[in-house]
Amino acid sequence: MSSPWQLLTRPAREPIRRWVLSAFPRQSSSPIDYDHPHGDPGLFGPDSAVWRVYSDFPGMLAGGLAALMLQTLHPLALAGVWDHSNFRGDLLGRLRRTTAFVGGTAYAPREQAEALIERVRQIHTQVRGQAEDGRPYAADDPDLLTWVHVTEAYSFLQGYRLYSPSLLPAHAADGYYDEVRRIAEALGARNVPRSEAEVSAYLHRVQPELEYSERSRIVLQVLSKVRLPVPAAGLTRDVFLHAGAALLPPWAATMLRRTPMQQAQSRLAARALRSLAPAFRAALNDGIASRACVRVDVSPKILLHWG
């Protein structure tokens, strides 16, 4: 029997599903086969924190947007985006590629996940240049890789905390950071934080290297106008962007010059996304996390619970 909440959210499911599959299409030509080989747990497996955190789409979408905002504060990381990507015309494409990499390394069978990491390593060797102040940068710089990793891992976990119905156990954050650091290290990152305390210390330590520049402003302006096929179920692009901004640490919101009105909009957007998050989950119950669970003979429902 359906619960009252399921009955209330059912009308929203189909438009939400159409929106998500339009914004983040499931490519039939994808080289990743999430269904085979049978029994392959990939790099993490069904008992991992990563499988649980990354299975919650609302938190991952908001977290991805928050990570993009954070990354605009690092001059060298931003220079690589500025010089080597079509961010003005395809910022959504960048978010899609990040989503594909994160999902692939989390849920693909081991051999395919490792191949995905190697492809990204090869791409990174071609991304080099000079920042505005003349400093050289390279996408395979171990310290830059750590920065990008931490901003994403932190933002995804905060997204889970704010938008998932499951309460994150006290021990789970440390387990999550210790698991996901393996991806960063495989890409070439060094001194990768492996606990929540280490992540907090890292973000405090790196702040003197960060700045809000004219380039930051321009990229954020492009992000604010990114083309999303919305509205869906009453949601708008701004709701998603503000829900992402709600995940920013206070010091980052200050550096990004978030106004009191924008902060208030973020709080409202967070409530709006939380209210529709169950409809997202119901609409997307056949995604790659579910397929990975079936591959290893476990019910996808285990991802809703912590052992």
From TrEMBL:
Residues 51-274 form the ER-bound oxygenase mpaB/mpaB'/Rubber oxygenase catalytic domain. InterPro entries: MPAB/Lcp_cat_dom. Coiled coil: none annotated. GO terms for molecular function: oxidoreductase activity. This is DUF2236 domain-containing protein.
